[in-house]
TrEMBL record:
Residues 298-359 form the HNH nuclease domain. One of its GO terms (molecular function) is zinc ion binding. This is HNH endonuclease. Gene3D superfamilies: 1.10.30.50.
Length: 395
């Protein structure tokens, strides 16, 4: 039977390309029993021509008397096909190489993304054929509880694996871990409920943490939470220094987190405040970003517990009637005195605000007054929550 290694005449390939052009794509593909390619194409006069069917037709032209392998042989031999054609002087490209997706690109589904750029038809992160870039897909329809994305601040992205403890070496997680370790640019795609997949922005995988979550089997387990930081483009030379350095932080091991979680499965306000204060003291010089993230995470969680689902402002005119996508009250946790102004990552300097109060505090006419009032409110709520926690525990 003829094999790809027997394809040695470029005129046979040229003949097959002419036949492709004469018959048209559809008729040519059905002639040789192939489906439309999604990955590798011969670039001919600016046109993209399905590489495997052309290789099959060329092989038949060069060896008309030999038995011919069927489409399955070529489908399993992508790199062999590409090498054989390139050795004969043809340019083989992928759609992602020729027309990589730009920020703002939109597709209704993963199937449409695959039709546009090729690659495996999977739900998780992928690389498109011909590219080293990792593409992350965050879908509000689930199954993972990713943070809503941000174009300005780091946000969370959950690992792969629906039940049981997540593993860095499972599924597409190694792709993301590679991107974190190398500090490579990553495309972040997002689909809101009822919307379409949009290539929202370039990100760098800044860090990885283990967090407690609920698996598909409804059991508590450890999950991977990657922190994604939006960056201005795919070229690291144009990134702020912090983004270029961030990925070098060593993540916590799962044992460190799981061990802590077994002791305190559901931390109270008091636990979290203590955690914040502990982290404030134990900040290691080489783990600045990790410690800061953990501290802020603990502090935000504490403030949300303290707020009991209500805006903490005394001037509040009412919470939004709609819950957020996770079915929780829509609340922003805000630093009363901004970090950049010397404010601390501590519940005493933080409040839970509804979007209206948050806007009034940050963009309103009486920002100073809000700051003063909210500081008093936070201090009082803090004392009360700590007192309640101590009473509740019977101490
Ligand atoms: Zn409010």
């Amino acid at each position: 039977m003829a094999r790809l290694s027997d394809l040695t005449e470029s005129t046979a390939v040229e003949g097959a390309i002419s036949e492709f052009r004469r018959l048209g794509r559809h008729a040519f593909l059905s002639q040789y029993g192939f489906r439309e390619s999604t990955d590798y194409f011969i670039l001919d006069d600016g046109d993209m021509i399905d590489s495997k069917p052309v290789a099959a037709a060329a092989l038949a032209r060069q060896h008309p008397n030999a038995a011919q392998p069927g489409p399955k042989y070529f489908e399993r031999g992508t790199s062999r096909t590409v090498r054989a054609l390139e050795a004969l002087g043809f340019t083989v490209v992928t759609r992602a190489q020729l027309h990589p997706p730009l920020p703002g690109a939109q597709y209704r589904s993963r199937t449409e993304v695959q039709a546009a750029f090729g690659g495996d038809n999977v739900a998780g992160p992928i690389r498109f054929p011909g590219e080293d870039v990792v593409n992350l897909f965050s879908d509000e329809n689930g199954p993972y509880t990713d943070d809503p994305p941000s174009l300005s601040e780091t946000f969370g992205y959950r690992g792969q694996g629906s039940s049981g403890p997540q593993r860095v070496d499972f599924g597409a997680n190694p792709l993301i871990e590679d991107a974190r370790e190398s500090g490579s640019p990553v495309r972040f795609w997002h689909r809101p409920k009822g919307g379409v997949f949009t290539f929202e922005c370039w990100v760098v995988v800044e860090s990885r943490a283990w967090v407690m979550g609920i698996g598909k089997d409804k059991k508590q387990r450890v999950e991977i939470n990657w922190r994604l930081r939006p960056v201005p483009g795919p070229n690291p030379a144009e990134w702020p220094e912090a983004a270029r350095l961030a990925h070098s932080v060593t993540p916590l091991t799962r044992e460190e987190v799981a061990g802590a979680a077994e002791v305190t499965p559901a931390p109270t306000y008091d636990d979290l405040v203590r955690r914040v204060e502990e982290l404030q003291q134990t900040a290691e010089p080489h783990a600045v970003s990790r410690t800061a993230y953990q501290r802020q995470y603990a502090a935000r969680r504490a403030v949300l517990i303290r707020s009991d689902g209500q805006c903490e402002s005394k001037r509040c005119t009412g919470m939004p009637p709609e819950p957020n996508r996770r079915g929780q009250p829509i609340l922003d946790v805000d630093h009363i005195v901004e970090l950049s102004q010397g404010g601390e990552d501590h519940p005493l300097n933080m409040v839970a605000l509804c979007p209206n109060c948050h806007a009034a505090k940050t963009r309103g006419k009486h920002a100073k007054r809000w700051e003063k009032e909210l500081s008093r409110i936070a201090a009082a709520a803090h004392d009360q929550s700590r007192f309640a926690a101590i009473e509740g525990s019977g101490a």
